């Protein structure tokens, strides 16, 4: 039965995707295709639930290229999260894509990415992880460019560039890691890395692997794809990009932190610095934005920073990392569920208004109490309000930072704590901006009258299913949330609590109060007076974020243009030097030979070809000469040289893979 469930898990979505994509005389209706996708996602969720009954740590090796899968606590948790989120997004898709173009293409990549993403989280070795990770990255590229607008195509270029670059660097790291340890199996990796004597080489391997996964997670300075891709992708795809695919990057970062460099203080400090920059930068960008999905995208960037702070605490606290271990996993879970709720909310807004600018969607939520409540579930959990999962996870990570500050007495860690609280306050500020604009302000004068019915029963059910777990897990921290996190300790390298956490004690509530106070100050002292203006009796939002602060436009693109110019100059110099060397040799050591008449080397071939042929020897020789001349011209062209170079690189890569993994 295990094999049967695995086939459902990995093969059923792929088979259904191909079935949907195949052109046929009588096209399937959009409603029927949507229902088929929902049924597929439901079957995959059922198969994942069935596989969760396997003993913890079970490893299943596939006969196909030696792929291996495991079902530990963390793998089960995120396997279920992936299946659940795909099902919810499938439920909203029929309404969102009603009358949309290229619907079959969207559903094809929607389903195959389900298999690829499950493969990442259930992988038992880094070879399997890398294979599915790259397939997931390439498959999700189509989500970014689905709308085919100039903005979507530009975002797709950035997304694909970061994904391919990250994948190549990760592959280099895996080659080096395999060479140093002799294994890529997760269960063997920690002991194998501990036995490596060349720690510098191990660090380089870790940095290379970290680069690729950090690129997918959206860690600074590799975050440039995230604010561009989320706003242009369809809302269900944005929910998966933010809620799941970024967690695939965090999964890889956890592997590096826990298995490759466990307990390494320098590594923990590096992750902490990157986490703090990402956390603050994303929150500041969100405060200055006026586009609903762009705010949520920058929010994802900031929340990844919060999670990285928790990952750093895993290492820096050593054996006392119980708070960090539980908090990091619950923060990941909270962010996945929150972004599922909020991006689907954005999808509902866009479907009804065809707008995302806060100035155009003002007042859309007025008179819609259910939508109002569902948004508050996601927003309150993201802001860390007591009674929601976000409060539990944020409290645990914050208390881990406080514990490290007390243990070390370091001023730098105290600064990290205040950056944590400041970023939490900025989160409250930009969520308040969305909340006031959509649910309390009056609609623009030229807006169409909005119906109180904002969604189909299926999409309403999807939003409710996405939002309900947030208060449920928040109200049962000891009975449910902590038990979920405790099941993942073997993967995160965490320890059990030595004492119970009192979530409603003043020591824990104090952090929330500080963040809420900062958030209200930012909203009333910055957003209302500086980022809004009154025009024609209406309050309008404006963005003052300077364009020159874009890393992509100000740093990366000019840098690559400069590198291309340098490379072209070097190539030109190399070619000119070769020509000069040939000229000097010809003038000094070599002499031109006299032309002499000799028989054509093709004469025997020509005679053989013209034998019993309607063409004479002269005509045959002319045809042969034309063909040979064409081949000579092809061989001397740049295109042919590039083709041969690519084939050579593919051959070399194949030989290296067979040598390393064989």
Count the helices. How many? 25
Radius of gyration: 29 Å
Proportion of strand residues: under 5%
Order of helices and strands: HHEEHHHHHHHHHHHHHHHHHHHEEHHHH
Shape call: globular
How would you state the average pLDDT, rounded? 83
Transmembrane segments: 6-24, 36-56, 76-94, 106-124, 130-146, 158-181, 201-226, 238-261, 267-288, 295-317, 329-351, 371-392, 412-436, 457-476, 512-531, 638-661
Subcellular location: Cell membrane; Membrane
GO cellular component, one term: plasma membrane
Pfam family, one: Proton_antipo_M
What report would you give on this structure?
With 662 residues, this protein is an all-alpha fold. Among the domains are: 263-543, no CATH class; 546-582. Helix content is 74%, strand content 2%. It is built from 25 helices and 4 strands. It has helices at 2-21, 30-51, 73-96, 103-121, 126-144, 150-181, 186-194, 199-217, 225-232, 235-260, 265-288, 292-316, 322-353, 369-383, 389-408, 411-439, 457-467, 469-475, 477-486, 489-492, 506-530, 551-588, 603-610, 617-635, 638-661; strands at residues 59-61, 68-70, 532-535, 538-541. The strands form 2 sheets. Strands 1-2 form a two-stranded antiparallel ribbon. A hairpin with a 6-residue loop joins β1 (59-61) and β2. It starts with a helix and ends with a helix. InterPro entries: ComplexI-like_HydComp (IPR052175), NADH_UbQ_OxRdtase (IPR003918), ND/Mrp_TM (IPR001750). It comes from Vescimonas coprocola. It is a multi-pass membrane protein.
């Amino acid at each position: 039965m295990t094999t049967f469930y695995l086939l459902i898990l990995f093969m059923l979505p792929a088979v259904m995707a191909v079935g949907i994509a195949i052109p046929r005389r009588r096209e399937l209706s959009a409603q029927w295709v949507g229902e088929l996708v929902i049924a597929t996602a439901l079957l995959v969720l059922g198969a994942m639930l069935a596989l969760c009954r396997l003993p913890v740590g079970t490893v299943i090796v596939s006969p196909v290229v030696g792929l291996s899968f495991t079902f530990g606590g963390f793998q089960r948790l995120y396997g279920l999260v992936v299946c659940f989120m795909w099902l919810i997004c499938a439920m909203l898709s029929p309404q969102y894509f009603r009358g949309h173009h290229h619907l079959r293409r969207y559903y094809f990549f929607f389903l195959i990415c389900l298999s690829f993403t499950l493969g990442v989280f259930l992988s038992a070795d880094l070879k399997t992880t890398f294979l599915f990770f790259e397939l997931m990255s390439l498959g999700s590229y189509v989500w970014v460019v689905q709308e085919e607008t100039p903005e979507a195509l530009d975002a797709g270029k950035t997304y694909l560039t970061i994904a391919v670059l990250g994948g190549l660097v990760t592959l280099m790291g895996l080659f080096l890691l395999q060479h140093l340890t002799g294994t890529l199996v997760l269960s063997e990796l920690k002991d194998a890395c501990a036995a490596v004597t060349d720690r510098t080489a191990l660090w380089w391997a870790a940095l290379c692997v970290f680069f690729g996964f950090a690129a997918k997670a959206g860690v600074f300075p590799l975050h440039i794809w995230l604010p561009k891709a989320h706003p242009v992708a369809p809302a269900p795809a944005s929910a998966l990009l933010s809620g799941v695919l970024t967690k695939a990057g965090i999964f890889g970062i956890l592997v590096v932190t826990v298995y490759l460099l466990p307990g390494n203080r320098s590594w923990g400090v590096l992750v902490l610095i990157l986490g703090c920059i990402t956390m603050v930068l994303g929150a500041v960008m969100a405060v200055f934005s006026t586009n609903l999905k762009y705010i949520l995208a920058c929010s994802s960037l900031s929340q990844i920073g919060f999670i990285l702070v928790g990952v750093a605490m895993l290492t820096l606290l050593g054996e006392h990392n119980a708070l960090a271990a539980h908090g990091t996993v619950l923060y990941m879970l909270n962010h996945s569920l929150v972004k599922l709720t909020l991006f689907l909310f954005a999808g509902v807004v866009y479907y009804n208004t065809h707008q995302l600018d806060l100035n155009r969607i003002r007042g859309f939520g007025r008179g819609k109490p259910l939508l109002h409540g569902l948004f508050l579930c996601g927003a309150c959990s993201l802001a860390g309000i007591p009674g929601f999962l976000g409060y539990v996870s944020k409290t645990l990570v914050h208390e881990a930072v406080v514990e490290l500050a007390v243990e070390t007495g370091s001023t730098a860690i105290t600064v990290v704590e205040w950056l944590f609280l400041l970023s939490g306050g900025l989160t409250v500020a930009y969520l308040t901006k969305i909340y006031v604009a959509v649910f309390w302000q009056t609609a623009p004068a030229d807006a169409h009258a909005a119906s109180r019915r904002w969604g189909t029963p299926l999409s309403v059910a999807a939003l409710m299913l996405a939002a309900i777990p947030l208060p449920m897990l928040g109200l049962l921290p000891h009975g449910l949330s902590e038990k979920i996190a405790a099941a993942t300790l073997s993967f995160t390298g965490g320890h059990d609590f030595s004492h119970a956490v009192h979530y409603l004690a003043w020591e824990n509530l104090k952090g929330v109060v500080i963040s809420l106070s900062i958030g209200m100050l930012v909203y009333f002292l910055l957003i209302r007076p500086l980022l809004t203006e009154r025009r024609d009796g209406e309050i309008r939002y404006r963005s003052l974020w300077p364009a020159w602060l874009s890393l992509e436009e100000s740093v990366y693109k000019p840098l690559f243009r400069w590198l291309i110019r340098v490379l072209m100059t070097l190539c030109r110099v190399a070619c000119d030097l070769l020509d000069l060397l040939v000229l000097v040799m010809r003038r000094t050591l070599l002499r031109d030979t006299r032309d002499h008449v000799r028989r054509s080397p093709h004469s025997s071939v020509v005679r053989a070809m013209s034998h019993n042929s309607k063409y004479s020897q002269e005509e045959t020789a002319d045809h042969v000469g034309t063909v040979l001349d064409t081949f000579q011209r092809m061989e001397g062209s740049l295109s042919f040289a590039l083709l041969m170079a690519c084939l050579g690189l593919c051959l070399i890569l194949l030989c290296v893979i067979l040598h390393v993994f064989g």
